Amino acid sequence: MSNNNIIKIKKELDGNNPVLLIEKELNYDNVQAAKEEITKFMEDFKEFSLELSNIENLDLNGIQLLHALKNKLQDRVHIKIVRIKEELKNIIVNSGFEYIFEK
Length: 103
Prior knowledge:
The chain is α/β, with parallel strands linked by helices. The protein has one domain: STAS domain (Transcription Regulator spoIIAA, 2-Layer Sandwich), CATH 3.30.750.24. It contains 3 helices and 4 strands. The protein has helices at residues 31-44, 60-72, 86-94, and strands at 7-14, 17-26, 47-58, 78-84. It has a 4-stranded mixed β-sheet, with helices on one face. Strand 3, helix 2 (60-72) and strand 4 (78-84) form a beta-alpha-beta unit.
């Protein structure tokens, strides 16, 4: 788990399914730290859920990270985005990145 005051990352299991929970902010200030934590998680799991339900602030940098995870890494790892606030999902969808939510 990161101790950074603008990002909080928890690793947990939902049944047998690994979940990476990102809280607080996913933006310019911490996207690199989030990327590093997600990369470490990918070393242990090739399929997992990314929970974003407690994200308070998401900017284009965060959206680009989600894009890279879903688009660029799809041959190596399967990531499913789960539990995201409706207003943040709308921002992503209205920005043209709706495929991020596809299974």
